[in-house]
Design goal:
This protein is an alpha+beta fold. It has seven helices and 15 strands. The protein folds into two domains: 107 residues, no CATH class; 95 residues, no CATH class. The relative contact order is 0.10. Belongs to the SPRING family.
């Protein structure tokens, strides 16, 4: 019976094949369970690295197998000013930003990756948010190639360092802070708005920080007696220093609602 013998032979071959396949399946090498943590980190720092746990360490203290700092300080804000949330080191900015009391986890879900561009979407997680906002950008520079301050890595919504103390609570209550017209004094501008210029509040507007809240100050900001608080129109002749902000030295006695300068726009407190 050759046909029966052939079928038996084919069945034996199939059984042998199945046994070999099962044996190979049992011999497959399996990955060992990963017992250690894995971290993302800021990568590019020459001397310092911050990981996604908020730990900052020296480059040679980074565990390259896991991406985590093997030692270091968690949530290090020692290089940061917490009034303006600006830091002198990028990695310190990321580490401090991740501290729970700064609530980066929730803020990341609300802040656009690119301000004023809804299509950019919000940040995916706290670490990506902190890495992104801590990078230097135009708001922390003057003259396009100089920093306002050595603390130019900021994770505040303002996004730039403050050079003066914060205003005391209630300093500008009831005051409408507005940008006047070119070549016009604040008393004239406020009057046309059916208000008056409050000379007593001018001192609170007389700082580069207040000016940068309302103007670009692209060319920088200087303290000069008799010239502030004001911004020079960007189309002014070059000798008049277009796009420059001017404030008067602290304690100046020449602050006045009636002062105006050619091609300047005054910062006015109307009440």
């Amino acid at each position: 019976m050759p046909a029966v013998a052939g079928q038996r032979l084919l069945l034996l071959v199939l059984l042998a094949f199945c046994r070999i396949a099962n044996a190979e399946r049992r011999l497959l090498v399996r990955d060992l369970p990963d017992k250690g943590p894995k971290c993302r980190n800021t990568v590019q720092g020459l001397l310092l690295v911050a990981d996604d746990r908020g730990v900052i360490c020296k480059r040679d203290e980074l565990n390259y197998a896991t991406g985590c700092c093997s030692v270091g300080q968690q949530y290090d804000c020692s290089q940061c000013n917490l009034n303006d949330k600006c830091c002198s080191e990028y990695e310190s900015c990321v580490s401090c930003c991740l501290a729970p009391f700064h609530d980066a986890v929730n803020i990341a879900k609300q802040v656009l990756r690119s301000p004023r561009h809804k299509e950019s979407g919000v940040w995916g997680n706290a670490f990506d948010y902190c890495k992104g906002v801590c990078r230097t950008h135009s708001r922390s520079t003057a003259h396009e190639n100089a920093y306002i301050s050595a603390r130019h890595h900021c994770f505040s919504q303002l996004g730039r360092p403050m050079l003066s103390d914060p205003l005391p609570p209630g300093a500008l209550d009831g005051v409408e802070v507005v940008v006047g017209l070119k070549n016009e004094a604040c008393d004239t501008f406020c009057l046309r708005r059916k208000k008056r210029c409050s000379q007593e509040h001018l001192r609170w507007l007389n700082s580069c920080d207040r000016l940068r809240e309302h103007f670009g100050c692209e060319a920088g900001c200087e303290m000069v007696t008799g010239l502030g608080p004001s911004y020079v129109d960007g189309n002014a002749p070059k000798p008049e220093r277009p796009a420059m902000c001017f404030a008067q030295p602290q304690g100046a006695t020449t602050l006045s609602c009636s002062v105006h300068e050619e091609n300047h726009m005054m910062l006015c407190p109307c009440v």
